């Protein structure tokens, strides 16, 4: 029977019913969104990093007449420049709008002189401007002196790795890589260590106040990453309260960046490690005990191997967060340059977009690497779970609990302390001279940075991102998970959905400039509007929402769709009546995640906001930049209040929904 | 494919009825390939209206693949399917006419029992009063009239499966597909529900296909059983045909138990050592290597002195071991004619008493010629 083979003929394909067409259409639309909002901008950026503009003098040839109008022999611009040395090779580098005046090649040029000039291109592509008229010809053209002074040569575009060569030969820029790697490595080690101790205490001891500590651990997520920087300035800055503790060290630089990074990456590492520790199997510990292994040995042979994937994953996530963060080094980095700052400086400071693109591509490398490793590790982590595991039950141990309490208490003090310092800074009239309390710092309309309008914009952005983002993310995940067939399409979609995790916000923001600010782009009209901020934020935070939705959808019985179609019900009826209600907790999680991140994000939007779409998080940055540190702290606290309130609302809404629409659960 | 012919050869009344008028469901030369792997190979099958058919086979035999092809969930690679004379080969599930019940029940967890059953009725322009009465009728039909407002999680597994069944038949489908519907239930509920489903199917007269790996389930419920193995049909027939006249060694082995001995076929007889057994098998060439199969319950016990009483196919044996299995005794028999291979026989408690059987006893057994199954060597699993 095994020798049978498939008879020749056409493979049977089912006709597409309306459902299948609509599903494919939906997935197509969302895939198109991801292509336009992610793939194309990144492509634009990548190609931009390989483009250089320069004046190629060999392409032009001049002839000049005597006063009687008799022309001498032709000479190329390159030859003239070599003879006279009027333009250095540095000045031949240019940008896309560069112009080089033709009169420079004739030191005795006078626009009143009767001398006439002729100009032609020696090759087909030799553009020059006469006034505003673009000429590009190999024919001789004759100009009088008065016209000749309005002639400008235009640079030609070339594609190649010159930008990269230049980047790596610039020691100042190159040292940023070293700095970034150093900061990220140190922060990663510290954060993972602290978070592990914290998570271990919460999962493996009978310590008290676990709920409180869990809440505190999540607090840093609610504020922009640059807020701890402001707190550190108040504590250890030039006029800091505890400056003497540093014993002459400066907080501005690697020290400040590392401390702040530990603060803002702590919750991310904590969640991952805590999940890894929570799936321990009691039986392994019982086995270790019965073999009379010491606690220390059990820790290294059972606990650590069991949590190793969580630790690796936490390390990579932390590393990526730190190396791609821009707010903190901006606020407290001083003269210490890192990659993310370089992008900002190249783009905002020097308007050198091509070089910004180069730095972005370099910043992509560690982020993408970390992303790949993390995905591999995550896959393995899942297989560790076994349905037959017995959950670990910690035993009371007073001495151990004291150590845990001390560890968690210290971390909690650190986190709450930094936020409290910010709150204090926001309420003090004029540190350190007038310590009376006032709300003056909240009078944002008197400061640069966008005022209260910026705060309102942020709320609008966060709200729109949460609503639109959740709809897009959840629908997209549903189509990927529940469409039949269409393998390649789904694979491609899945890839696009995972990509944003690997793209740092700065890189995405810069890519958006290249893509959407191009006048030839039909979507150019959204540049400088709220729409582009929403699009960039949804895209930037797409992956985590997508994964949350996928996890929820995978828990739903895969046979709902076949049942519904056998009952001749359209899929959207199943979607609205069953899928969405069942997934509501996950949907709420996605929306609060998007809201909180939209409130705090700086990196992508800093390149994209315009005067009437200034944002609270960017205002913190700009007020700090302008020296208004106290109002910056006040604005940072506004973001904190808002996020805390949103979280609270989310909690209440979740409870309510669990109580009403999820009545079927847990009975 | 030879086995398919063997199957239809021995097919009984139900098959003949279906060949008389047009079949309700016709599966015509179906193939299914997953890459290089052929999950279905040239499957053809006719199912009459109102029939209860079981696809039976070990896991990986292709029975679920065949069901999913009929449902349009995983379309076949080659071949055609006709339902009620209509070619449904390329129709998507929503355009076919069937109700389906899965092993997981697939009840919508956030909808009450009543809303689950009404799911296929709503959105069709029926007035809500009509839907309500239909739901009540269905709940009564599956014996759960009091459970309308409960959520699925509040019901037992057996109750959930009945609700899933009610939901599937609510839209009065022409075909009912059951994918291992009882596998997730415990043994007692399973036996009970087996009977109920069969009863319901008879009452509604709906053509039904059930996939199962449980031979008892298939034997007790099906009008006809389709035994499958390695993506092919080994035999199609009524439960008694399948059991009494297995078309292949695989079927004999898979359904019920058999004693197997390898030997040669000569002069319409098979030799066991120096004893020749006559058989009623036909169509086997002289001198072929064969496997002789006898079911334990077909072994007839006799006392030793009956060995020369003129009864054919008698075999002297020694009773070496006995296990009590409740309604009968499983006896281990050894005979020089069988070499080292033990022979298993199921003897009734009566026979045990009558012959005073105990381990170590020398006795004789009869293997009735019509119960001696002979298969060419190298067929089946």
Summarize the structure.
Chain A has helices at 18-48, 77-84, 89-92, 145-148, 162-168, 171-204, 210-218, 227-236, 254-278, 282-290, 295-324, 327-332, 339-349, 353-384, 398-427, 451-482, 487-498, 505-516, 530-540, 542-554, 560-566, 571-600, 616-625, 629-659, and strands at residues 51-54, 60-64, 75-76, 93-94, 100-101, 116-121, 128-130, 133-135, 141-144, 151-153, 156-159, 428-430, 434-437. By secondary structure, chain A is an alpha+beta fold. The interface between A and B is large, with 42 and 49 residues.
Gross geometry of chain A: globular
Content of β-strand of chain B: 25-35%
Strand-pairing-aware structural class of chain A: alpha+beta
Oligomer: heterodimer
Number of helices of chain A: 24
Q: Largest sheet of chain B, if any?
A: 6 strands, mixed
Mean pLDDT over all positions of chain B: 88
User: How are the strands of the largest sheet of chain B arranged?
Assistant: 6-7-8-3-9-10
Biggest sheet strand line-up of chain A: 3-2-6-9
Distance between the termini of chain A: 51 Å
Helix content of chain B: 25-40%
Low-confidence stretches of chain B: 1-19
State the helical fraction of chain A: 55-70%
Largest interface between protein chains, with number of residues from each side:
A-B, 42 and 49 residues
């Amino acid at each position: 029977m095994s020798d049978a083979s498939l008879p020749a003929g056409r493979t049977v394909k089912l006709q597409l019913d309306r459902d299948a067409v609509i599903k494919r259409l939906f997935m197509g639309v969302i895939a198109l969104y991801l292509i336009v909002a992610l793939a194309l901008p990144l492509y634009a950026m990548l190609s931009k990093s390989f483009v250089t503009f320069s004046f190629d003098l060999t392409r032009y040839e001049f002839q000049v007449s005597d006063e009687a109008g008799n022309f001498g022999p032709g000479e190329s611009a390159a030859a003239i420049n070599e003879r006279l040395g009027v333009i250095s090779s540095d000045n031949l580098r240019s940008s896309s709008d560069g112009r080089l005046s033709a009169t420079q090649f004739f030191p005795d040029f006078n626009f009143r002189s009767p001398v006439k000039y002729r100009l032609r291109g020696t090759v087909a592509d030799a553009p020059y401007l006469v006034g505003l008229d673009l000429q590009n010809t190999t024919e001789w053209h004759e100009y009088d002196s008065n016209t000749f002074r309005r002639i400008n040569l235009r640079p030609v575009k070339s594609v190649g790795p010159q930008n990269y060569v230049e980047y790596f030969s610039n020691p100042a820029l190159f040292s940023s890589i070293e700095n970034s790697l150093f900061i990220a490595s140190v922060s990663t080690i510290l954060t993972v260590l602290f978070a592990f101790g914290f998570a271990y205490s919460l999962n493996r001891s009978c310590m008290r106040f676990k709920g409180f500590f869990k809440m505190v651990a999540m607090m840093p997520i609610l504020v922009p990453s640059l807020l701890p920087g402001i707190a550190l300035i108040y504590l250890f800055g030039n006029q800091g309260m505890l400056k003497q503790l540093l014993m002459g060290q400066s907080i501005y630089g690697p020290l400040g960046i590392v401390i702040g990074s530990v603060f803002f990456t702590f919750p991310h590492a904590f969640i991952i490690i805590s999940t890894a520790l929570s799936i321990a199997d009691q039986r392994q510990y019982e086995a270790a005990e019965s073999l009379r292994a010491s606690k220390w040995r059990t820790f290294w042979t059972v606990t650590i191997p069991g949590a190793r994937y969580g630790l690796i994953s936490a390390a990579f996530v932390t590393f990526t967060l730190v190396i791609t963060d821009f707010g903190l080094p901006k606020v407290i980095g001083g003269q210490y340059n890192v990659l993310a700052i370089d992008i900002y400086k190249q783009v905002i400071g020097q308007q050198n977009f091509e070089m910004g693109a180069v730095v972005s591509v370099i910043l992509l490398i560690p982020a993408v690497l970390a992303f790949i490793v993390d995905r591999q590790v995550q896959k393995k982590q899942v297989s560790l779970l076994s349905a037959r595991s017995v959950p670990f039950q910690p035993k009371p141990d007073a001495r151990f609990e004291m150590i845990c309490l001390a560890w968690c208490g210290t971390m909690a003090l650190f986190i709450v302390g930094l936020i409290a310092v910010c709150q204090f800074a926001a309420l003090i009239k004029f540190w350190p001279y007038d310590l009376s309390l006032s709300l003056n710092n909240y009078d944002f309309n008197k400061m640069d940075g966008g005022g209260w309008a910026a705060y309102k914009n942020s709320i609008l952005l966060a709200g729109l991102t949460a609503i639109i983002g959740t709809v897009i993310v959840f629908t997209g995940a549903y189509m990927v998970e529940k469409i039949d067939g269409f393998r390649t399409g789904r694979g491609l979609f899945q890839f696009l959905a995972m990509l944003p995790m690997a793209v740092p916000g700065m890189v995405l923001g810069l890519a958006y400039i290249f893509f959407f600010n191009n006048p030839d782009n039909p979507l150019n009209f959204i540049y400088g509007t709220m729409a582009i901020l929403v699009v960039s934020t949804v895209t930037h935070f797409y992956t985590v929402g997508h994964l949350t939705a996928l996890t929820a959808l995978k828990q739903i019985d895969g046979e709902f769709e076949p049942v519904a179609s056998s009952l001749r019900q359209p899929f959207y009826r199943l979607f609205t009546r069953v899928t969405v209600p069942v997934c509501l907790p996950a949907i709420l999680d996605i929306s609060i995640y998007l809201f909180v991140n939209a409130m705090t994000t700086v990196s992508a939007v800093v390149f994209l906001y315009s005067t009437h779409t200034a944002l609270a998080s960017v205002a913190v940055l700009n007020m700090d930049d302008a020296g208004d540190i106290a109002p910056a702290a006040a604005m940072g606290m506004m973001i904190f209040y808002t996020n805390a309130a949103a979280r609270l609302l989310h909690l209440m809404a979740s409870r309510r929904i669990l109580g009403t629409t999820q009545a079927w659960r847990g009975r | 494919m030879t086995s398919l012919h063997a199957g239809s050869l021995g097919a009984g009344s139900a098959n003949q009825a279906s060949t008389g008028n047009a079949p309700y469901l016709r599966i015509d030369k179906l193939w299914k390939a997953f890459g290089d792997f052929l999950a279905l190979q040239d499957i053809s099958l006719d199912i009459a209206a109102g029939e209860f058919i079981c696809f039976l086979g070990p896991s990986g035999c292709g029975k679920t693949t065949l069901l999913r092809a009929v449902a349009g969930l995983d379309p076949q690679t080659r071949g055609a399917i006709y339902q009620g004379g209509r070619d449904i080969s390329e129709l998507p599930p929503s355009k076919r006419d069937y109700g389906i019940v899965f092993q997981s029940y697939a009840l919508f967890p956030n909808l009450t029992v009543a809303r689950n059953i009404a799911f296929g009725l709503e959105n069709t322009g029926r007035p809500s009063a009509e839907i309500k009465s239909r739901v009540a009728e269905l709940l009564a039909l599956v014996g759960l009239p009091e459970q309308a407002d409960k959520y699925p999680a509040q019901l037992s597994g057996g109750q959930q499966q009945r609700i899933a069944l009610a939901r599937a038949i609510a839209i009065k489908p022409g075909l009912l597909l059951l994918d291992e519907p009882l596998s997730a239930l415990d043994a007692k509920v399973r036996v009970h529900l087996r009977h109920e489903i069969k009863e319901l199917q008879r009452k509604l007269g709906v053509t039904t296909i059930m996939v199962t790996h449980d031979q008892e389930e298939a034997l007790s419920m099906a009008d006809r059983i389709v035994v499958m193995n390695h993506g092919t049909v080994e035999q199609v027939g009524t439960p008694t045909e399948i059991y009494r006249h297995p078309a292949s060694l695989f079927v004999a082995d898979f359904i019920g138990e058999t004693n197997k001995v390898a030997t040669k076929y000569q002069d319409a007889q098979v030799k066991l050592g120096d004893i020749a057994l006559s058989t009623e098998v036909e169509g086997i060439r002289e001198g072929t290597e064969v496997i002789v199969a006898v079911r334990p319950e077909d072994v007839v016990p006799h006392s030793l002195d009956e060995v020369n009483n003129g009864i054919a196919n008698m075999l002297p044996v020694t009773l070496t071991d006995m296990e009590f299995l409740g309604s009968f005794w499983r006896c281990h028999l050894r005979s020089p004619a069988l070499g080292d291979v033990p022979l298993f026989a199921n003897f009734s408690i009566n026979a045990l008493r009558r012959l005073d059987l105990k381990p170590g006893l020398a006795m004789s057994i009869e293997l009735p010629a019509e119960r001696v199954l002979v298969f060419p060597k190298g067929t089946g699993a």
